[in-house]
Amino acid sequence: MSVASTAPPALKAVGITRVLKNLGILLGGRAVNAPLSLIHISLAMHMLGSYGFGLIAMMYAFARMMGDVVDFQSWQVVLHYGLRPLTHNDRNGFQKIVSFSLFLDGISGALGCGLGIAISMFGMNALGWPTSIHHIGTIYCISILFMTTATPMGLLRLFDRYDLIAMQGTIATIVRLIGTASLFFVGASVSRLAGIWMLAEAAAWTILFGCAILEMRKRRLLQGFAHRFCATVPDILTNRFGRDHQGIWRFAWATNFNSTLSLTFGHIGTLIVGSLLGPASAGYYRIASQVAAGIAKPVTLVQSTLYPEMARMWREQSTKRLYRMCVQIALVGGALGSLLLVVAFFAGRPLLDFMTGDAHSRALPVMLWLLAAEIVTVWGLPLEPLLFTTRKSGAAILARTMETIFFLPFLVLMIRWYGLGGVGPATLCATLILIGIQLVIVIASRHETAADQDAATC
Questions:
Q1: Distance CA 334, CA 221 (A)
Q2: Neighbours of 311 (CB within 10 A)
Q3: In sequence order, what DSSP letters do the residues of 319-366 get, joined into one string?
Q4: Residue 30: how many other CB atoms lie within 10 Å
Q5: Which of 179, 214, 290, 308 is least crowded, fewest Cβ atoms below 10 Å from its Cβ?
Q6: Residue 341 pLDDT exceeds 60
Q7: Which tops the pLDDT comparison, 311 or 231?
Q8: By the 8 A CB rule, do 158 and 87 touch?
Q9: How many CB atoms lie under 10 A from the CB of residue 31?
Q10: Residue 22: pLDDT above 80?
């Protein structure tokens, strides 16, 4: 069955031009989101103190970690397998891919929520949670259901609606800010702030799904979708879908495993710091990592705009353009990221002083180390998307595995030796190892990729 005008209008643009255009849209959203996020964290920190905010950070990190562990990153499935039927006006084929992605999201959300509740109920001591947040932490795991937004995110990227992604990205922050400010009138507590963060996740989830549904309706892709979904689920369960779409399960499992490994730098770091050093240190680490990520965010946003463009170039067998774009992005992003590191060296102290009061001396060194790690990541931004786009997912997983094997024990060792100050150097060393391995793999496989493309053309 065909459908009119489903191809994204941005298909008329090419390469880095479209990447930069979408980056500009996302930066507009960040320009609003970043200051609101800093104000919200500052309010929460001043009302609850470092200990109370640390408890919130630990609960959030655990819930997000459980969501990431089971998440299939199905937005990549939508991009890589949905682009062809979309551009060929194959509505049925496109709806099958979206149905598969939604199925993965539903399963991963339910599984993550169930595991999170079970672990929080019976593994509270291992998580480093005090008894005062046992019940709150268990209830907070319900928010995992609203963290599985991969399918609508993939659809909006595929439809080139980065303006909606930018708008949606501020929803959770606005809800958190308004909710936190309201605590001045009703009284601040860990349980009330946890409820506000849960509400923020639900609001962002609702907005994102609503935008994706409206965009599908505009392109006449929603007609008959419920029937197609119901027909596709049995095919998935009997593996008929996998036989019709060779390699899709392998790709889904690869992206899931890779995202599980990549979370070691974020949420697992917060959990380990909280478990070994206590909630207050977890709060400082959370603030330092968020500020560092926020400063580098204008450049790291490039990665989310790279995947759709890379998928198009790979499908069109434009290998030289693909690699040339990656080099351009790495050089431009790396230069900007290095400049941001210099700016942060001078601006970091007053920024953390605003957020934490006189406790900035504990968070500032960690923030600078973590920002240095972010800048190294910026220099290697195109590497991992390139490996997945060129069907080298196994190599991408190998790089992440080697990084994780090094990082986790080294992080624990550095914390025991140097306390909170050991987190930054451990993170930077692990990042250097990851980017170095990815770079070696990309260089080694470049000629092989070109040969594979030539063979496919013949």
A1: 39
A2: 23
A3: HHHHHHHHHHHHHHHHHHHHHHHHHHHHHHHHHHHHHHGGGHHHHHHH
A4: 17
A5: 214
A6: yes
A7: 231
A8: no
A9: 12
A10: no
CA angle, residues 231, 236, 238, in degrees to nearest 5: 100
pLDDT on residue 155 = 92
Q: What are phi and psi of 221, to 5 degrees?
A: -100, -5
* Residue 213, CA distances (Å) to 1, 33, 196, 258 in order: 20, 24, 26, 28
pLDDT recorded at residue 363: 72
What's the length of the chain?
458
Q: Which residue has the higher pLDDT, 170 or 428?
A: 428
Cα angle 15, 323, 24 (rounded to 5 degrees) comes to: 35
Nearest alpha-carbon partner for 104 in 240, 229, 247: 229
pLDDT, tens digit (0-9, with 9 covering 90-100), for 208-236? 999 999 999 998 898 889 899 999 999 99
How many Å apart are CA 360 and CA 357, to the nearest integer? 6
Contact 66, 99 (CB under 8 A): no
Give 104-164 as a DSSP string: HHHHHHHHHHHHHHHHHHH-HHHHT--GGGHHHHHHHGGGGGGG--HHHHHHHHHTT-HHH
Is the dihedral angle over the CA atoms 232, 235, 236, 237 positive or is it negative?
Answer: positive
